[in-house]
Amino acid sequence: MGFLGQFSTVMLVSLPFVLAAHPRFLGTHIHNARAINSSYDYIIVGGGTSGLTVANRLTEDPKVNVLVLEAGLMDQGETYFSEPSLAGGAVGTKYDWNVTGVANPQLNNRSVTLPLGKVVGGSSMLNRMVFDRGSKADYDMWRDLGNPGWGFDDLLPYFIKDLFTQASHDGFGLLLRTSVMRSPVWASRSRMMGANISSGSAYGFFWGPTSLDPSKETRSSARSGPYEVAKNRTNFHLLSSQQVTKLILDSSGPEIKIEGVEFKSSSSAPVQTVTANKEVILAAGSIHTAALLQLSGIGDAAVLSKLDQTVALDLPGVGNNFHDHQYVVLAYTAANLSLSTANLTTNATFAAEAQAEYENDATGPLTTTGTSAMAFLPLSSYAKNSSSAILSAISAAPANVSLSTAAPPSVVQGHMAQRSLYSKFLAAQDAASMEYIWSDPSLLIALVKPLSRGSVTITTLDPFVQPAVDWRALSDPADLQMLNAGIEFGRALYGTSALKVLEATEAMPGLATSAESYVRDTLATIYHPAGTCSMLPKDLGGVVDVDLKVYGVSNLRIVDASIMPVLPATHTSSTVYAVAEKVSFYSKPLTFFFGVL
User: Fold this and answer.
1) DSSP 55-83
2) Which residues are identified as catalytic?
3) Tell me, what's the pLDDT at 162?
4) C-beta of residue 544 within 8 angstroms of C-beta of residue 131
5) At CA 410, angle to CA 405 and CA 415, rounded to 5?
6) Which of 43, 191, 341, 454 has its Cα between 20 and 30 A from that of 317?
7) Where are the beta strands (DSSP E) in 362-486?
8) In 3-state terms, what secondary structure has residue 410?
9) For the chain, which residues make up each domain, given as ranges?
């Protein structure tokens, strides 16, 4: 789950700031809703990766006050949040939304679970700490879909700003920390079936950076980074365990204005309200941001009318273009694996020694998540014998093959624009569509450029009922073709000199099971949901413009992964941080300890 080139100092997106004096604040983390102010300059819905990043940047100006409303809890310092080897351990707990998708016909009617962070820090607390970045082609695709200012060169300064930043008025500090973990055997001695060994690009075989604080060997997250930097500011409030249930709209002008929000601690609790003087910023994630818009009367009129919801703004793209990275496991056993993280669960003595090493001096096996050894490969590398056929099939398929028959016309047009760029992307040698993650001694094989598109739709006006998440994985036949090729390439890797020494035996799916059958039976999500409020021209199913402002609304922005029109071929954490940095970069050049870039 979620991980230099030329610089640009041009400010492309800015948020206005108020210079008026504000009431005295009582402290950051507010435990009682009655203790908050009646109004704030900015209300941020969601205290996760993007929400806390924006809150930190906005409150750098002491004249601006900010409220973050987070539906989840503040963590209690559980070890599965901090220890790298336990990364992902919070999945399925009270800190997880535990969203389950609708039955998927292409997956033999299985319903796939989608973990999402329901905690201060969001999914940056639940993920496996991978902190990589997509290729130039990934972000240039955003630009080429009608979003000037959002190509790789435009985003690069904000990827950098995540890591090296003037974090507070008190002096220089690191907002986020990353490092390269110690990892098991991987592509250390060969070019692995003709693929390049990456030397700084975002494709090939490489050791991936992780969101790890190397000074402590603990997770670095939006909770330990942006929140910790901002938490003592007197102009910052965070109210946890409060779910925003509706946006309060003023439809009297030429554009809708958001006056504030309604929120509740539970379905039976009384509704409370708070006013936004300037803007409301949605950072609730791809599932809940789309649902909140629909609950507020902003979305596809055809969907909302069926629920007897008053349509305040017909915006068909809301909830559409949903997609996620998807993976299968090529499971192996190995006769020759002398030091394995698997020993942590099978060898009590080894596990005790490892725990002592970690607690005494932050060393040993517990300092790794085991997901640092990765490969991001172009179609031509992993599908040498079938890439031409796959590309031909994509070009020949109907434009709406990836979409539901209920998709609005503008969404269909937007996907047609995406498909035309996909053909060029998949044919390129420097753009990845398949990821391989070494999992000691197995291999996770992930399609990171899927064509299939689904939707997120509320089924009731009760905000405490989860929306219908229709992933529609494998609805486009090309996705299955790419995964089949990916499995065959993965099997071939175990015959290379670098991995042959393991004396590995395939346990799943086994040669007697077809790759296609195995994919349909086991395909799962990597927990990178995106696209439900896409940054696209409105006539292509877009929901936000290049300033991330919602079309037709004067003071509403979205800053989470829902704005990504196409998922980059990477774990999404660092990209979400960069998007949040970009939208909140308002007046200062990128200043580091060595000067101004």
Assistant:
1) HHHHTTSTT--EEEE-SSBPP---HHHH-
2) 528, 571
3) 65
4) no
5) 70
6) 43
7) 373-377, 434-439, 442-447, 454-457, 468-470
8) helix
9) 29-596
Q: Rounded distance, CA 566 to CA 271, Å?
A: 36
Cβ proximity of 143 and 417 under 8 Å: no
The answer, yes or no, to whether residue 321 has pLDDT greater than 90, is yes
* Cα gap 582→11, rounded to integer Å: 8
Token pair in block for residue 107: 């997956």
In sequence order, which residues have a C-beta less than 8 Å from that of residue 76 and are 6 or more positions away? none
Q: Is 50 annotated as a binding residue?
A: yes
Q: Is 130 one of the annotated binding-site residues? A: yes
Q: How far apart are CA 42 and CA 361, in angstroms?
A: 42
Residue 178 and residue 13: Cα distance in Å, rounded? 26
**What is the Cα–Cα distance from 273 to 277, expressed in whole angstroms?**
13
C-alpha–C-alpha distance, residues 435 and 408, integer Å: 32
Task: Indicate the SS3 state at residue 396.
Answer: helix
Q: Is 119 annotated as a binding residue?
A: yes
CB atoms within 10 A of CB 384: 15
Tokens 């309200």 appear where? 273
Give 223-265 as a DSSP string: IIIIIHHHTT-TTEEEE-S-EEEEEEEE-SSSSBEEEEEEEES
Instruction: Report the predicted TM-score, pTM, of the whole model to 2 decimal places.
Output: 0.87
Nearest to 193 by CA among 181, 183, 205, 202: 205
Q: In this structure, what token pair is assigned to residue 66?
A: 């900010």
Q: How far is CA 318 from the centre of its chain?
A: 18
The structure tokens listed for 208 are: 């991936």
523 HSE (CA, 13 A, CB side):
32
Q: Express each pLDDT in 25-55 by its tens digit.
A: 444 788 778 889 999 999 999 999 999 999 9
Task: Give whole-number Cα distances, 29 to 25, 68, 141, 277, in Å.
Answer: 11, 9, 39, 21
47 in Cβ contact with 120 (< 8 Å)? yes
Regarding beta strands 179-180 and 209-210, do their DSSP bridges make them parallel or antiparallel, or are they unpaired?
A: antiparallel
Q: Do residues 13 and 583 make contact, with C-beta atoms less than 8 angstroms apart?
A: yes
Q: Which two tokens stand for residue 36?
A: 């908050």
For 329-353, the DSSP string reads EEEEEES--SS-TTHHHH-HHHHHH
Mean pLDDT in residue range 517-523? 97
- What is the predicted pLDDT for the residue at 195? 46
Q: Cα–Cα distance between 58 and 557 in angstroms, integer?
A: 14
Radius of gyration of the chain (CA): 23
Q: Mean of the pLDDT values across residues 330-349?
A: 66
Confirm whether residue 329 is marked as ligand binding.
no
DSSP structure class, residue 122 = G
Distance CA 248, CA 261 (A): 5
Q: What is the pLDDT of residue 25?
A: 41
